[in-house]
Amino acid sequence: MNTASIGAVAPRPGTTVYNACKAAVANMTQGMAVELAPTIRVNAVNPVAADTAFMAGAMGVEGGLSDEQKAPIVAGIPMKRMTEPADVAAAVSYLASDDAAFLTGVCLNVDGGRSIS
């Protein structure tokens, strides 16, 4: 299981290098899925921004994001919120489960619709 980013498929300005690296993870996921099938399944999740220490650090903020800093991020997400770690964990759990036994090479967007808006 790999973690890429919604930036891999729907990049935003100002994060080009990050988006390119995450696109490489998505491509690697698909390549490994082909190479390792049928014995091993390889999938990835593409989460949208989350209010985490990583996000605060990436934005140069200490102590978490303010509502003012979150607003432009949330504005671009149709579900009108950032992802929660539980959203990503649920997607990973599903992809790792027997319910997803025939899925490999999937990069599941956990993005509240950002990639389609």
Features:
117 residues, mainly alpha, Rossmann fold, three-stranded parallel sheet, 3 strands, 9% strand
Description:
- The protein is mainly α and 117 residues long.
- The protein has a single domain (2-116), classed as Rossmann fold.
- Helix content is 41%, strand content 9%.
- Strands 1-2-3 form a three-stranded parallel beta sheet, sandwiched between helices.
- The mean pLDDT is 95.
Summarize the structure.
The protein is mainly α and 117 residues long. The protein has helices spanning 16-36, 53-58, 67-75, 85-96, and strands spanning 2-3, 44-47, 107-110. Helix content is 41%, strand content 9%.
Helix amount: 40-55%
CATH architecture descriptor name:
3-Layer(aba) Sandwich
The proportion of residues in beta strands is 5-15%
Named CATH topology:
Rossmann fold
The tally of strands reads 3
Q: Briefly note the structural class of the backbone.
A: mainly alpha
Low-pLDDT residue spans: none
The CATH superfamily label reads NAD(P)-binding Rossmann-like Domain
Query: How would the global form be characterised?
Result: elongated
Report, as a whole number of angstroms, the end-to-end distance. 26 Å
Arithmetic mean of pLDDT: 95
Q: Can you tell me the CATH class?
A: Alpha Beta
Order of helices and strands: EHEHHHE
Biggest beta-sheet profile = 3 strands, parallel
**Number of contiguous helices:** 4
Number of domains: 1
What is the alpha-carbon Rg in Å?
Answer: 15 Å
Largest sheet: spatial strand order = 1-2-3
